[in-house]
Amino acid sequence: MLSWELWAALLACGAAAGVGGGLIIVPVVLAVLSAARLGGEHAQHLAVGTSLAVMVFTSLSSVRAHHKKGAVDWRIVRGMAPAMVAGTLLGSLVAGWISGLALRWFFVAYAYAVAAQMMIGRQPKGGREMPGAAGQGMAGGAIGMVSSWVGIGGGSMSVPFMSWCNVPVHAAIATSAALGWPIAVSGALGYLYSGWGAAGLPPGSAGFIYLPAMLALMLMTVLLAPVGAKAAHRLPVARLKKAFAVLMTVMASQMLYSLLRG
Predict the structure, then answer these.
(1) Where is mean pLDDT largest: 20-34, 75-89, 168-182, 217-231?
(2) Are 177 and 72 in contact (CB under 8 A)?
(3) Are 146 and 91 in contact (CB under 8 A)?
(4) Burial of 180 (0-12, 13-18, 19+ CB in 10 A)
């Protein structure tokens, strides 16, 4: 059973994720589960699976907001989405065989890498055009698999990839939001299946998805995702990235401390 303080933490996290992105959901859900002594060895799986399930709903709201601005390049979505689905589904199924400790170390390393890239503020210089079907498929599959292990929509990888391929930054952000939905759906289904019947899951779990946390987060992220889309177009991108990098560094450091403390 979650206390009102933990419910409040989830709602606040949902509000922040709706504006700033989904990478903060996993450490917050993990902290809530740990505080409530739920999940045990599967706490990281539940945090990642819940994050992906939340994004099924968040992504739709965000994509609609970006689409209204005409910023989504649907040709890129059609080119990368099929392989992303395959990579995410495979990764989420494989995650069922990976220990929660290993997934947590992978998340910490990835979070530090993303925070460093955001703090530096360098995007890859456009050096080529978007590759053909095979190239987009390879990139999409890799992005999908990594996303399935950290519980994100892949924007921290797909935006730099598209920028490297001379896609304008705002179009890359919007297109990445559209690609996040197939990642979320396939990842959520994969964690639902891989966790079905696992021992030690808390009441209210559907596979590796913790439904109470999903509902609280979904409420706030769906309401505030359009605000995030507007912010991406109106606010200074560099300043937003640095603020988010600081937040990610703090959260990753907290997770690292708990790992080292054992």
Answers:
(1) 75-89
(2) yes
(3) yes
(4) buried
The residue assigned the tokens 């300043």 is 239
pLDDT over threshold 90, residue 241: no
CA-closest candidate to residue 54, choices 84, 79, 23, 75: 23
> CB of 210 within 8 A of CB of 39?
yes
DSSP string, the chain: ---HHHHHHHHHHHHHHHHH-GGGHHHHHHHHHHHTT-SGGGHHHHHHHHHHHHHHHHHHHHHHHHHHTT---HHHHHHHHHHHHHHHHHHHHHHTTS-HHHHHHHHHHHHHHHHHHHHHTPPPPP-S----HHHHHHHHHHHHHHHHHHTS-SHHHHHHHHHHTT--HHHHHHHHHHHHHHHHHHHHHHHHHHTTT-TTPPTTEETTEEHHHHHHHHHHHHHHHHHHHHHHHHS-HHHHHHHHHHHHHHHHHHHHHHHHH-
